[in-house]
Amino acid sequence: MTESGPYIDYENLPAPQEGFVATLFITVRHVARSREFYSKVLGGTVVLEENPCIVKLANTWILMNPGGPPTPDKPGITVADYEPGDTTSIFLNLRVADIDACYRLWSERGAEFVTPPIDRGAEIRCYMRDPDGYLIEVGQATGVLTGHLAKKRPEDLPG
Prior knowledge:
Strand content: 25-35%
Distance between the termini: 71 Å
Largest sheet: 5 strands, mixed
Number of helices: 2
């Protein structure tokens, strides 16, 4: 009797024949729970079930694994679990064709949004959190398509 390994979708692995592709690695507490969120809620394709889990999400890949201690290729660096809260310095940004449809569909599938979509002039956007608390922006370009940009914040102005 042979033990089968985890499922692998070889055709969708992020392994370019030339150049490179960009992927996003996130540290997760429960791989199965995160895999289900990115595949079932957001509609991604599971490419590799674990070690690391890889989900193809539209034209990018989300790689996820638990944190861990330093390794020979990253000596002195520990990969730590994300501590969700009221601050963040990085987040996934999903650009969609129809934000209202995505908001309804993903809400029905269990996504928890911070607010409904809000029209900000240049775009309509809202945010949700994944099971580990990572912030995900969902935005639809609107005014920016005709040159209407977002207003600058005072801290963005020169001087």
